[in-house]
Amino acid sequence: MKKFEQLFSPVVLGNRQFRNRIFAAPIGLEYYPDERLHPGDEFIAYFERKAQGGAATVSIGSAMADNARGAIGPTIRLDDPTALSPLYRLSQCISRHGAVADIELQHCGANSYHSKFGLGNEIFGAFDSVNGLGMEIPQMPEEVIFEIIKKFGDAAQTAKHCGFGMVTIHAGHGWMFNQFLGPHNNRRDQWGGSMENRARFVNAAIADIKKKCGRDFPVCVRISGAELFEGGYDIDYGVEIAKQLDGHADLINVSVGAHEETSVFTITSPSMFLDDGANVKYAAAVKKVIRHSKIATVGALAEPELLEEIIASGKADVVMLCRQLMADPDTPIKAQMGQEKKIRKCIRCFECFSAHFTKLTSICAINPEIGFEREVKYNQVLPQKKKKVLIAGGGIGGMQAALTAYEHGHEVILCEKSNELGGALRCEKKVPFKQNMQQYLDSQSALIEEAEIDLRMNTEVTPELAKVLKPDVIIAALGAKAVMPNIPGINGKNVMDADAGYLEAEKVGEKAVVLGGGLSGIELAIYLSQLGKKVTIIEMSNRLNFSNNVIHSMAINNEILKYQIVVVTSTKAVEITEKGVIGEFVGDSFSEEQCCDTIAKGMLVSAVTQASLNQHYEIGKQSLYEADTVIYALGQKPLRDQSNELRNCAPLFFELGDCVEPKNVYTANATAYTIARDIGRY
After folding, report:
1. Are 107 and 123 in contact (CB under 8 A)?
2. Cα separation of 601 and 80, whole Å?
3. What pLDDT is attached to residue 35?
4. Higher pLDDT residue, 553 or 252?
5. pLDDT in the model for residue 608
6. Is 437 helix (H, G, I), strand (E, B) or coil?
7. pLDDT tens for residues 601-647?
8. In which region does residue 388 sit, left (phi positive, over 0), alpha (psi from -120 to 50) or beta (all else)?
9. Which residues are 390's β-sheet partners?
């Protein structure tokens, strides 16, 4: 058993697994080299360093969902089409280290000074009030509320498009949603008065995000559990706020205080005069009454022993570190390896935050790397420590991790449970238009065989094997398995999964129905059509899913037309019979939202990817789609359970590729390369 087993157990929010319970808390930076407020290389390197150090997620603070009415100062804009490229680079520099990129969506309401003075726009509060500068601020009209709800959904959709795996809504510290949630909001419409009405705005924003990003897309909401100033609300009221958010937000981050009350700033971010974990009690109070959402605590957290105790005792599900990950970004890695005595603990001197406000940059009194992360990043030498690295899985990610670790001087053992390297994509070896991919897999395989890598085929990595090999590092690259839908008839003799469809195409009858209009299903349909089969694709959404590959979609569309593949959208398979598939028309019930204006204006939008292939039937109408063979291609389920069995079998554990989240070749390679390069710093 590892010393900090609970701290380094994974947590699932929405459909995403986070590698441990240490989250890098949201923090903004004031330095933007671009007048459009785009994050530059120094900005990106600052956040990437936290991901390299092992945090499960890295949150970018203070991004504006509504810059026109919600900005307190110049910050990242999520309603700016020109920001897509730098935001994508920012997210990828985080996620390639195995962390989840998170971005905090903010709106300052009555305190939106930049929107008022810098941009000349009218600003609103939850109710008629006087803001921190003594300005009289009018109550927000209902039409503006609806507009802002949409802007939060659009901002989250933009963030997801740019590669962020979670968003955080800031509903604490006196910002707009907190103004609505607070006890002084006695509006006489549906947006105030009762607790349910006070929480309606933020819950509506969450709902719009889930509508546009998918119901399983993780959403965190930051609240003030207590305001801690005279006239502010206490923890009992904070608990009532959390009750309203329970089940709407996937994670509730319980902070304290209010931004405009200077007396509590150094309690929100505890000073050296307060105890370690001074604010944990507020999260613990919320945790006692919440039934569905996970709970995070934040403030003066550094010691792994304390972090472990918080999780193990059930005070919170997640611990958020802010200044500690400046004092020592490698806190998670060191703790995981049992090197907690080497952790540089934050002295809470506020040199960092003071520089943040006075010099528009970040520094750390005890860590000279902070502020110079980019310089250090590009001057990294080969690993200081040579490690024994055990890699479980010889697919795309596993092969790249093995090669990179070997090139950096580590002893590498690569185990593949089958008799062939290449992973799931080897099912396409007979497909004519996938021969370049097969050659790439062959090339990677040859490089591994030529290198001094201990390659073990037909070998599954188990805890027992790990115990014998005693690796310093385990990298799980175990892949995923096909999702089998719960449809009557799915186990029939005329049914197979997509892998079998590729490998055993000769067994597919003359008429085939492919369930699922993603890339795997579409390309399988094209392959079968090339073999002379008559193929129909059935998709529940009102459009095919090309995974944002807008150029490849054009080529695919040509093939669909060429081979006269029938595409049936907005239809759910409700039964499989010997004659084929009974499909039920579902309208737009399972359709994704069209991309918002920010995305549409900021990227090349293919007419093919955006095409809504609307059928015109009554909802619930059923039809028989004849087929000799039915093939399901409805996505992949990560092999998380198998991966988690290896989590405590080495001092250091990483996972990558489809066993984390099924994505694509680029993501698997980028993460594998980066994680392998990170090994050996300790």
Report:
1. no
2. 9
3. 78
4. 252
5. 73
6. helix
7. 887 666 677 777 777 788 999 999 999 999 999 999 999 999 999 99
8. beta
9. 413, 474
DSSP state of 594: P
Q: Which two tokens stand for residue 418?
A: 């089958």
Q: Tell me the average pLDDT across 538-546.
A: 92
Contact call for residues 219 and 169 (beta carbons, < 8 A): yes
What does the pLDDT look like over 9-25, one tens digit per residue?
Answer: 999 999 999 999 999 99
Q: Is 274 helix (H, G, I), strand (E, B) or coil?
A: coil
Q: What is the pLDDT of residues 219-234, one digit of tens each?
A: 999 999 999 999 999 9
Question: What is the Cα–Cα distance from 89 to 85, expressed in whole angstroms?
Answer: 6
Strands (E), 325-423: 388-392, 411-416
Rounded distance between C-alpha atoms, residue 213 and residue 77, angstroms: 18
pLDDT at position 1 over 70: no
**Helix 235-245 with 280-287: angle, nearest 10 deg:** 50
Alpha-carbon distance of 239 to 226, in angstroms, equals 9
Helices 396-407 and 435-450 cross at an angle (nearest 10°) of 40
- What is the spatial distance between Cα 364 and Cα 376, in angstroms, rounded to a whole number? 15
Distances, alpha carbon 476 to alpha carbons 1, 5, 655, 675, in Å: 19, 18, 4, 11
At residue 28 the predicted structure's pLDDT band, cuts being 50, 70 and 90, is: confident
Residue 251, beta-bridge partner list: 220, 294
Q: How many residues appear in the chain?
A: 682
> What secondary structure does DSSP assign to 314-331, as a single string?
TS-SEEEESTHHHH-TTH
- Looking at the predicted structure, is the pLDDT value of residue 593 above 90? no
Beta bridge partners of 318: 296
Residue type, 600: A
Give the global pTM: 0.94
Structural tokens at position 614: 């609307």
**Of the candidates 225, 205, 233, 259, which has an alpha carbon nearest to the alpha carbon of residue 62?**
259
Question: Residue 169: which of 337, 159, 113 has the closest Cα?
Answer: 159
The residues near 568 (Cβ < 8 Å, ≥ 6 apart) are 536, 537, 538, 539, 583, 615, 625
For 255-272, the pLDDT digits (tens) are: 999 988 889 999 999 999
H helices of 313-378, in order, are 324-327, 331-336, 351-358, 373-377
pLDDT at 153: 98
**Contact by Cβ (8 Å): 175, 259:** yes
CB-based burial, 167-181: b 16+ in 10 Å, e otherwise: bbbbbbbbbbbbbbb
Joined tokens for residue 567: 């595409």
Question: Which of 679, 43, 662 minimizes the C-alpha distance to 384?
Answer: 679
- Cα separation, 176 vs 148, in Å, equals 11
Instruction: Give buried/exposed letters for 355-368 (b at 16+ CB in 10 A, else e).
Output: bbeeeeebbbeebe
Is the pLDDT assigned to residue 592 strictly greater than 90?
Answer: no
Q: Is 294 exposed, middle or buried (0-12, 13-18, 19+ CB in 10 A)?
A: buried
478 Cβ contact partners less than 8 Å away, ≥ 6 residues apart: 392, 393, 639, 642, 643, 655, 657, 658, 659
pLDDT in the model for residue 397: 97
Angle CA 376–380–382, to nearest 5: 165
Reported for 350-356, long-range contacts at CB under 8 A and 24+ positions apart, including other chains, are 350/266, 350/269, 350/271, 352/323, 352/326, 353/269, 353/323, 356/29, 356/30
Rounded (10°) CA dihedral 580, 584, 589, 592:
30
pLDDT for residue 381 is more than 70: no
146 by DSSP, 3-state: which?
Answer: helix
The answer to whether residue 382 scores a pLDDT higher than 70 is no
Q: How large is the greatest C-alpha to C-alpha distance in the chain, in angstroms?
A: 77
